[in-house]
Automatic annotation (TrEMBL):
Keywords: DNA-binding, Membrane, Transcription, Transcription regulation, Transmembrane, Transmembrane helix. SUPFAM superfamilies: Homeodomain-like. PROSITE patterns: HTH_ARAC_FAMILY_1, HTH_ARAC_FAMILY_2. Residues 677-776 form the HTH araC/xylS-type domain. InterPro entries: Homeodomain-like_sf (IPR009057), HTH_AraC (IPR018060), HTH_AraC-typ_CS (IPR018062), Tscrpt_reg_AraC-type_HTH (IPR020449). The chain crosses the membrane at residues 306-324. It holds the Pfam family HTH_18. This is HTH araC/xylS-type domain-containing protein. It comes from Paenibacillus ferrarius.
Length: 782
């Protein structure tokens, strides 16, 4: 028991000992492995060289045979008497028997490897032969010729079967190597006349066997893979194991892509080392296999020796390490003893199990105290910094020159007086849902937005973020560059932040950018201008990038008489229970309202809501079952709506309730329309997501994947992919007109994954390529 307590109190000593022991073991194992691996490579190289010598000799013999046969067939083909026999027609006579006897004596009997010679006459469709009858009918030759359309590759060895029995009742076949030589073909592509020499394949195999028997290793085997990727049997006794080995060699060779010179295969637990070499002008491949264990028999002995030596070295090392570890551990032991004797640490930490956990507790306690102190200091400093920045943004006239310089130095603000300032307002979309979360989660999201935006914008300008404890945060920006270039860079980086926040936190933000101001005292003016621009999120939608230029591009302000006229037409369609007509008039009304200034826009929409109230009250007087007033008719609900699309959806619910015959039908139509508008809104917000599609939208909206396309097409008269492409193309045009980005960068930003597909849909919509479109717009501006 005392021994266990003593060991547990010196765990750090044991760890030092084990770490050193493990290190020594690892080094020894690595060195042993390197030695074994190098020896193995040398043995492999030696075995490979032996195999390559044998293969090279065999290859030389085969290529020499191929050369002799090619010379022989060419000399025979160029013989005038042979050519006369090749092109002999029915009207001519020729002593072909004497000619064939001459070939038999000069070619067949003079060359032991030649089996027979054929002279093919295409005019008579006759084959003259030195084997058997002078006019020989070789059915296997005729079948081969017919299979290849009447012509075979010239001067290339072809392995085929040949009938060698002269008895028709007992047909015997023999493998031969056939060479064909011809120059001309007829109109059907058949050989016009040819010389065919058949080589005894058995002569070649006997030669290979003779070379192979020179080896001391009788377990080695040789194989030939033909140009048709079939194995030629070198030995007549082809066993089942040999056939399996051939299949493995073929599979491994083809999978290796014909690179390298050797590989290993495993068959029935036996590993083989296979070397190979290609034979020129034939398409053949020679293989030589040697059992792996036979080639590396003494490597196993070497491995055993290495293991024994490693174990002995390790045991000696462990004894030496024990003394070394004690020497290293001694300072730690003294430090632990000194800390344990300290009264203050004893009271704060208490008894520990071992010296290592005790030192951990001492460090943790000290770090906690230091961290708490640092946290309080940083929190107070950050609070004071944020209070100053809030004062500067909200009331910049109250910040004097001296105060600005003092606080800039104290809080290390990067701004300089001689450069212009800009304000970027980041407004949280769906702010109501954000306020419903816990305070800690809300603050975490705000902190994430501020830090991500600062990290991104710091690439092009000086930036500081201000948490204004509202539905938005403000970014103070300053850079020494032209305003147009700075604005373009900022909008580009803000869009990247929007996409990142949406993908990482499922959070949507709308950004608005002010014009630049020349002095720090005008910062409040820039902030108010950016805040005013952000109000136009109501028109542009969530995740927008807004500037004063956007408001300017909205067009001429319409007359209120036109707005009131459309409002009356809308109410009339609702009174007549004309659902389709009401939806069209509502769309026309909202198109006109979008052109108003923001304050007039909201007043106009409030007026429309009030008129709907009176209309519903009036209709309920003559109905047996009253229509329920939708929540949108309450001014409080209207003020919480962030986009005009949401307003349209809510108001459509009222129209459906008023124009529907039954409450159930009203609810169904209202739900479908709400979902259709929701899909449209989601596409407008998330068009930059390359993975956006019907399946993802179906999950968000709560509609099955099989029905969402039909639902959207009913109300939008186009498919979801077509609408996504339309939104992306419209955004692409905006980038082309308002930035200097390349087409590839724009394609990535608007959500197209395939560049060729973007070019295709762009030209289909605009009738021109993106480059031509940009050039045309640039020319129009000039």
């Amino acid at each position: 028991m005392k021994m266990m307590i003593k060991l547990s109190s010196k765990k750090y000593l044991a760890r030092i000992y084990l770490w050193f022991a493990s290190l020594i073991l690892l080094v020894t194992a690595i060195l042993s492995s390197v030695v074994y691996y190098n020896v193995q490579e040398k043995v492999l190289e030696s075995e490979y060289k032996n195999s390559q010598k044998l293969l090279a000799q065999t290859k030389y013999n085969m290529e020499n045979l191929n050369s002799m046969v090619r010379n022989l067939i060419l000399s025979t083909y160029n013989n005038n008497d042979v050519k006369s026999l090749m092109y002999l027609n029915d009207n001519e006579t020729f002593d072909y028997m004497n000619m064939m006897n001459k070939l038999k004596s000069s070619v067949v009997w003079s060359n032991s490897f030649v089996h027979s010679v054929y002279i093919y006459n295409n005019n008579k469709h006759i084959t003259y032969s030195t084997f058997g009858e002078f006019i020989h009918n070789d059915t296997e030759w005729e079948r081969l010729l017919q299979l290849h359309g009447g012509s075979l590759p010239p001067l290339k060895p072809i392995i085929r079967d040949m009938n060698v029995s002269l008895d028709a009742q007992h047909v015997q076949k023999e493998k031969v190597l056939t060479y064909v030589m011809y120059e001309l073909t007829d109109e059907q592509g058949r050989m016009d006349g040819a010389v065919i020499i058949n080589i005894k394949l058995e002569w070649l195999f006997d030669n290979i066997k003779t070379i192979n028997n020179f080896e001391a290793e009788q377990l080695s085997q040789m194989f030939i893979l033909s140009d048709k990727r079939d194995f030629i049997e070198v030995s007549q006794e082809s066993s089942e194991e040999g056939a399996k080995l051939e299949a493995l060699l073929k599979e491994k060779y083809e999978s290796s892509g014909e690179t390298g010179n050797y590989f290993t295969v495993k068959l029935n637990g036996t590993k083989y080392l296979a070397a190979y070499i290609a034979v020129d002008n034939t398409g053949w491949v020679l293989f030589k296999t040697v059992p792996y264990d036979e080639a590396y028999v003494y490597l196993n002995k070497l491995r055993t020796s290495i293991i024994v030596i490693t174990v002995i070295v390790l045991l000696v090392t462990l004894l030496v390490l024990l003394q070394v570890s004690r020497g290293i551990y001694k300072p730690v032991e003294q430090l632990v003893a000194q800390l344990r004797s300290s009264h203050s640490f004893g009271e704060q930490i208490g008894p520990s199990k071992d010296e290592f956990s005790f030192l951990q507790d001492v460090y943790r306690n000290s770090a906690n105290q230091l961290g708490q102190f640092q946290l309080e200091r940083t929190s107070n400093q950050q609070h004071r910094k944020n209070r100053f920045l809030s004062k500067w943004v909200l009331n910049s006239l109250s910040v004097s020159q001296d105060e600005f310089e003092l606080f800039s130095k104290e809080y290390k603000l990067p701004f300089r007086q001689e450069q212009n300032f800009m304000i970027c307002v980041l407004k949280f979309d769906d702010y109501k849902s954000l306020t419903e979360q816990k305070l800690e989660e809300k603050e975490l999201f705000v902190f994430a937005v501020m830090n991500i935006a600062l990290e991104s914008l710091s690439k092009v300008c000086l930036a500081e973020a201000v948490d204004l404890r509202n539905d938005h945060v403000a970014l103070i920006l300053q850079a020494d560059m032209p305003e147009d270039m700075l604005k373009e860079s900022i909008l580009l980086l803000i869009q990247e932040c929007q996409i990142y926040l949406l993908q990482r936190y499922q959070m949507s933000i709308t950004a608005s950018l002010s014009v630049s101001v020349t002095d720090h005292t005008y910062l409040t003016t820039a902030y108010q201008q950016a805040l005013y621009v952000s109000m136009y999120r109501f028109i542009s939608g969530k995740m927008s990038l807004l500037t004063q230029d956007y408001i300017t591009q909205l067009g001429q302000i319409p007359s209120m008489e036109r707005v009131l006229e459309l409002e009356n037409q809308l109410l009339e369609q609702v009174r007549n229970a004309n659902y389709r007509g009401a939806t069209d008039k509502l769309a026309d009304l909202l198109d006109e309202v979008k052109k108003l200034e923001y304050s007039d826009m909201m007043l106009s929409l409030l007026h429309t809501v009030n008129q709907f109230k009176y209309l519903v009250y009036d209709l309920n007087k003559s109905r047996q079952k009253p229509v329920k007033v939708n929540a949108i008719l309450m001014s409080k609900e209207l003020l919480e709506i962030e986009t005009i699309t949401e307003f349209q959806i809510k108001l459509m619910e009222v129209i459906y309730e008023v124009t529907s015959d039954t409450e159930a039908q009203s609810q169904q139509v209202s739900d479908e329309t709400t979902k259709a508008f929701r899909i449209e809104q989601l596409i407008s917000e998330r068009y930059a997501d390359m993975n956006l599609g019907a399946a993802e939208l179906a999950l968000i909206v709560g509609v099955s994947a099989s029905k969402i396309g039909k639902l959207f097409k009913t109300y939008k008269h186009m498919s979801i992919p077509d609408y996504i492409n339309r939104v992306r193309l419209e955004k692409a045009v905006e980038w082309m007109e308002n930035s200097q980005l390349t087409i590839q960068e724009i394609i990535h930003k608007v959500g197209f994954e395939n560049e060729s597909y973007f070019y295709k849909v762009f030209k289909a919509k605009f009738g021109t390529t993106p480059r031509e479109f940009i050039a045309k717009r640039a020319k129009e501006r000039m």
